[in-house]
Amino acid sequence: MTEKTEDLETRLLRRALDKSQQGRGALLEDIAELFVGGDGRLSDQERSLLSDILTKLIHEVEMDVRRDIAARLSDIEAAPRELIVMLANDDVEVAGPILLKSGVLRDADLMEIIKHRSTEHRLKIAGRNGLSEEVADALIENGEEDVIEALLNNDDAVLSRHASEYLVEESRRIDRFQEPLLRRPDLPPDLGHRMFWWVSAALRQHILEAYAIDESALDEVIQESSRSPVGLPPAPKTRASQAEKLVSDLADRGELSEQFLLRSLRQHYASAFTAGLARMADLDPKMAQRIVFDPGGEALTVACKAIGMDRAVFAPIFLLVRKIVDGSGAKDATVVEHVLRIYDRLAQDRARHVLKFWQRDADYIEAIYRISSAVA
To answer: Fewer Cβ close by (within 10 Å): the C or N end of the chain?
Structure first.
């Protein structure tokens, strides 16, 4: 070694002669400190020699020492790679800081640990900065809900479009995925709007407020999304109902209006209301039916705001629809306050954007509708 490290060399030699576990621990800590110092004292040859010593002796010392060395080396880019990989595969108490922070680990190393080590190791990896799509996919494929939730809460992890689509689908049955998914800054807007149909009222409001998209980019985003991820064939075309024919005739004569919608509900002609809403909002009939019978009422609020319905007309329409849907007529004042608050806060342009997703994603909503019907 160089003259600058002569005293340290003497100390290292003395440590090496001490065969006790305490001596081994002190030797390793001194060597680790050389890597942490990083002031150019070590030549490449010296670094290689000390790396070999660390690697050979690391499992001869107590966990406390290994844990201390792992913590010291976790931020060191020049740390010995073989040693870092060994520490990353140690008990999670040792491996934790390495898995979270070490830039020495490669994706292949992480994927091997995901495959062969414990859930606790995978949880640490899920919180790692700069997590790549490939590693994120490996964590997701392992199927552990705690790990996936931790991954979703890591904004610095990169999720592929395929992974996002899969997790959005999973969020239909695993509620704990919903909020972290919708809080992610990289969730594609069309997938956020897709989740509208099964999340809570609070998260629906978040979707309406947070997931905007430039008009010029909307068609491109929708086209990129998979149309029927649940794997069902498209539904067969059906003949127009009497209500649809009536609405078509009224539209041709310029007589289709929000007053007709209100009158239809007051006369208990729900099918005419649904057909009229579909025509005025340019919606597929099945989508309109989904909107009308959606239990929360937020979807109807968005559709009515998008077509510019007067608030004074919307309020009685909402109450009449709720009476049809659940027989309550929305007697709970908080329900009415909730939808009216959404109606007042939601800009018509934003409502029209949401409607565009629903107009173009009809196949997907049809698939959801058919699955829901089959389960019921």
So the answer is: C
Do the Cβ atoms of 196 and 295 come closer than 8 Å? no
Residue 109 lies in a domain: no
Torsion, Cα 12 15 16 17, to 10 degrees, reads 130
Which CA distances in Å does 278 have to 5, 187, 188, 267, 282? Answer: 82, 29, 26, 19, 6
Among residues 61, 83, 104, the one where a domain terminates is: 104
What gap in Å lies between CA 375 and CA 300, rounded to an integer? 24
**What one-letter code names the amino acid at 368?**
I
Instruction: Give the Cα separation of 187 and 191 in Å (integer).
Output: 7
Domain count, the chain: 3
pLDDT band for position 3 (50/70/90)?
very low
Higher pLDDT, 93 or 371: 93
Q: Is residue 251 domain-shared with residue 366, that is, in the same domain? A: yes
Report the alpha-carbon distance of residue 10 to residue 141 in Å, rounded: 51
Residue type, 48: S
Residue whose entry in the numeric block shows the structure tokens 């919606």: 283
Picking from 13-17, 31-35, 159-163, which range would have the lowest pLDDT averaged per residue?
13-17
Q: Give the domain extent around 334.
A: 242-371
Give Cβ neighbours of residue 357 (< 8 Å, ≥ 6 apart).
189, 190, 193, 194, 218, 222
Helices (H) and strands (E) in the chain, counts: 24, 0
Distance between the two ends of the chain, CA-based, in angstroms? 77
Which residues are CB-neighbours of 200 under 8 A, at least 6 positions away? 178
Query: Which pair of tokens denotes residue 333?
Result: 């004042």
Cβ-based neighbours of 116, under 8 Å, separated by 6 or more: 89
CA distances 315 to 81, 152, 275, 339, 365, Å, are: 66, 38, 19, 9, 26
| Residue 296 counted as domain residue | yes
CB neighbour list of residue 187: distance below 8 Å, 6 or more residues apart: 164, 168, 181
State the Cα–Cα distance between residues 178 and 195, nearest whole angstrom: 8
For the entire predicted model, the pTM comes to: 0.74
The candidate with the shortest Cα–Cα distance to 368, out of 206, 208, 197, is 197
pLDDT given at position 356: 85
